[in-house]
Amino acid sequence: MMLEISLDDSDLQRGLGQLLRNARHPRPMMKAIAAELLSITEDNFESESWGGKKWPANTRGGKILQKSGQLAASIHTASGSNFARIGTNKPYAAIHQFGGTVKAKNKPYLVFKVGDGFRRVKQVKIPARPYLPMSKGGTLQAGAESRLLDVALDALARGVRK
Fold first, then answer.
1. The whole model's pTM is what?
2. Which string of DSSP letters, residue by residue, matches the chain?
3. Phi-psi category of residue 35: left, alpha or beta, with phi > 0 → left and psi -120 to 50 → alpha
4. Chain-centre distance of CA 36, in angstroms?
5. Segment 78-136, tens digit of pLDDT
6. What DSSP string runs through 24-63?
7. Which of 4, 33, 59, 61 is deepest in the core (most CB within 10 A)?
């Protein structure tokens, strides 16, 4: 008695072919990565943290970085065949992402409403409250790499599995 096994590799060949087509045309993958960057950013606004590290509290109370909601609403994405991008066009966005000192330029003081009155200062230090999922040096926040890799692998495998 002889045992003989024959394999039909047509499904494997079809799957590998689809995987190669997906890799050669990465635009859908980059679009999915940009969407995931936006999702991570929205999670940061919701949790008021960056990769699990809580943002410094603010003095006015309420949701941090969401006094008017304009910063969160201004986040946009773009993607192409070789890039996935996230950002905002708000001029004050960088000071909140990276922190820094704001100094009075055209007047002797900065004026802030505090309680029932106003406060005059020559400068104010804004702590970093990173909301975008990467640091100034391009390091992804904790957990982001895994999420982006899952999205990329799903996009590459799209149409491969039956």
1. 0.84
2. ---------HHHHHHHHHHHHHHH--HHHHHHHHHHHHHHHHHHHHHTEETTEEPPP-SS-SSTT-SSSHHHHT-EEEE-SS-EEEE---TTHHHHHH-EEEE-SSSS-EEEEETTEEEEESEEEEPP---SSB-TTSPBPTTHHHHHHHHHHHHHHTTT--
3. alpha
4. 7
5. 999 999 999 999 999 999 999 999 999 999 999 988 778 898 999 999 999 999 999 98
6. H--HHHHHHHHHHHHHHHHHHHHHTEETTEEPPP-SS-SS
7. 33
* Two tokens, residue 162: 């039956």
Alpha-carbon distances of 110 from 101, 103, 121, 124, rounded to whole Å: 12, 7, 5, 8
